Amino acid sequence: MDFKEHIRVINDFPKEGISYKDITTLLRNGEVFRASIDALVERIKPWQPEVIVGPEARGFLLGAPLAYALGIGFVPVRKPGKLPGKTVRETYALEYGFDTLAVHADAIAPGTRVVIVDDLLATGGTMLATANLMKKIGADMLGMGFLIELTFLNGREKLTEYPVFSLVQY
Ligand SMILES: O=P(O)(O)OC[C@H]1O[C@H](OP(=O)(O)OP(=O)(O)O)[C@H](O)[C@@H]1O
Ligand SMILES: Nc1ncnc2[nH]cnc12
């Protein structure tokens, strides 16, 4: 399956100079959506994770069905002020701005085998912040998977501690 054919590219969104990779066109096609989850399952199952972690918002769209397919739990990493319990936080830089991420402090028991999934790797700031949150709560980080990687932004250089894969590259 050529996932790129189903990803819409919109130039100058959300700011001039950004070539936005829109996955809504992939998600709305049931066959392609399922194939993308199946492809993630194939890559991630051998790592034998106990929990999938996904950052808000697009990490939920792939992470939750992936966890369901693997028959394991899903832990959301959220933007601040959204989680009701005690949280740990990390601030990070985006391709277009700054943000903070938070996770419930008790979301994952120390030593739990965790894989993080997101739709897209750009500068790597989101994934590094998510990995740092996992470190803070004592998770055993097995690796990270992405649907899309923007290779020219060298996000992988921030993530050299971990195995990283992506299904399509720009
Ligand atoms: O590698 P980075 O430079 O950190 O960029 C990648 C992140 O940017 C996008 O999320 P965004 O923050 O736009 O939020 P959204 O998922 O709520 O749309 C994307 O879904 C990744 O999470
Ligand atoms: N170019 C891009 N397209 C879609 N989502 C993004 N997140 C960060 N950079 C992005």
From TrEMBL:
Q: In which pathway does it act?
A: Purine metabolism; AMP biosynthesis via salvage pathway; AMP from adenine: step 1/1
Where the record annotates domain Phosphoribosyltransferase, the positions are: 24-147
- Hey, what's the signal peptide range on this chain? none
What are the EC numbers? 2.4.2.7
Similarity comment text for this entry: Belongs to the purine/pyrimidine phosphoribosyltransferase family.
One of this protein's GO BP terms?
Answer: AMP salvage
User: What does UniProt list as this organism's lineage?
Assistant: Bacteria, Bacillati, Bacillota, Clostridia, Eubacteriales
Q: What is this protein called?
A: Adenine phosphoribosyltransferase
Looking up InterPro entries in the UniProt record yields: Ade_phspho_trans, PRTase-like, PRTase_dom, UPRTase/APRTase
The entry's cellular-component GO terms read: cytoplasm
Which is one GO molecular function term here? adenine phosphoribosyltransferase activity
Localization per Swiss-Prot or TrEMBL: Cytoplasm
* Keyword terms of this UniProt record: Cytoplasm, Glycosyltransferase, Purine salvage, Transferase
Which reactions does this protein catalyse? Answer: AMP + diphosphate = 5-phospho-alpha-D-ribose 1-diphosphate + adenine
Q: Which species is this record about?
A: Desulfosporosinus fructosivorans
